[in-house]
Write a structure and sequence with these properties.
The chain is about 5% helix and about 50% strand. By secondary structure, the protein is mainly β. It has a single domain, classed as Beta Barrel (OB fold (Dihydrolipoamide Acetyltransferase, E2P)).
């Protein structure tokens, strides 16, 4: 039975920093990536915010977390928290 729950197929995963934990069971994660500007060829940082499901309200602002794609849980939420990689310095 555990093999079925562990094998969820190919799901996208992202690593980012929690920017908001105000909502219940929901966190907002900012994911940054580096890309080359199409015209000027300069390397720039591009960031995007994802809304992720945090069942136990474990993650806090500033934590580095790993999130994975899942089925739609609400209008904007289709990611879930996998693990907390590192805690924010307090």
């Amino acid at each position: 039975m555990s093999e079925v729950t562990e094998n969820r197929g190919h799901r996208k995963e992202r690593v980012g920093v929690v920017t908001s934990d105000v909502q219940s069971k929901t966190i907002v994660v900012k994911v940054e990536r580096r890309t080359t500007h199409p015209l000027y060829k300069k390397v720039v940082k591009v960031s995007k915010k994802f809304t992720a499901h945090d069942e136990n309200n474990e993650a806090k602002i500033g934590d580095t977390v790993r999130i994975a794609e899942t089925r739609p849980l609400s209008k904007n939420k289709c990611w879930r928290l996998i693990e907390i990689i590192s805690r924010a310095a307090e």
